[in-house]
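Readers of this paper often ask what the protein records in our data store actually look like. Nothing more is needed to write down the fold, since each code stands for a local backbone conformation. Below, we set out a record of this kind in full and without editing:
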Amino acid sequence: MKPDAYRDAGVDIDAADSLVERIAPMARSTNRPGVVGGIGGFGGLFQLAAAGRWRDPVLVSGTDGVGTKLLLAQQAGRHDTLGIDLVAMCVNDIVVAGAEPLFFLDYFATGRLEVDAAAQVVEGVAEGCRRAGCALLGGETAEMPGMYGPGHYDLAGFAVGVVERDEILDGSQVRAGDVLVGLPSSGLHSNGFSLVRKIVAEAGWALDADPGLGHPLADELLEPTRIYVREVLSVRDRLLAAAHITGGGLPGNIPRVLPPGTGARLSRAAWQEPAIFGLLRDAGAIDEDSMLRTFNCGLGMVLVTRPEHADALARELGGSVVGEIVAEEGVVVA
């Protein structure tokens, strides 16, 4: 076989090696107690005993992607925020159990490796890890000719966290009369983008133009998902449950953390909705039920607490009291 036969087939090992050299310092910048060694081995090593004094630790894991938001980023040629989205989607899912994220791994797959674009993505992953307080422990870069079109790639992430068994937020103590505190989203986050892309295409909006937001559309659509780890962990002792508002919106995600026989009633006037949601609602002629089941509509995290803690939590975290728990299953937003 010719020395460059694999490259002729579409896989450039030298490019992959160059990427590893570039991302190694990024990974080191996320190190935290518990990390053993560095990236480049076959597996990432983490020593739980060095990460904290755990009495009865339970590991909590989560995996996710960024969805078709990737296509808009690739269309705009902007790759620097997707890694933050990727980390956010995973760590926000595990922190709702009360877990502190420990480490993160990423998977980057493409047809032909473009080192600069991949490095921008991983820099975003590193930034997300720094915001979440977890280590970028390793990952995988897969170059698969014929699987992806030119300039296209896919992302997946995996996070592991830890929580004391008796501190798990499982919603079992939630009861009617408890209060919902909503934390603002940074925009669309990483859900609903198949509908977003359809609306953008049908409206004929250019990503570098302003459709009435005061800034280019791409800036709004690619705003990274907010990471709520530090906020949730800072008030964990006053929480009964927490819901990450992703696909399915408020009606689809809040019931996941409530015990049988309970539901939630939210006041639509209790929080401010970013302008992008109104723009999409009007341009796509989307009814309110569809909006609520597709997008976060301005709330990226909803916390459940006792009434006596609600106002203080809202002030401390920059959120608002948005509703209450009721003795009837389902979520009503009125």
Notes: The longest helix spans residues 115-132. The mean pLDDT is 94. The chain is about 35% helix and 25% strand.
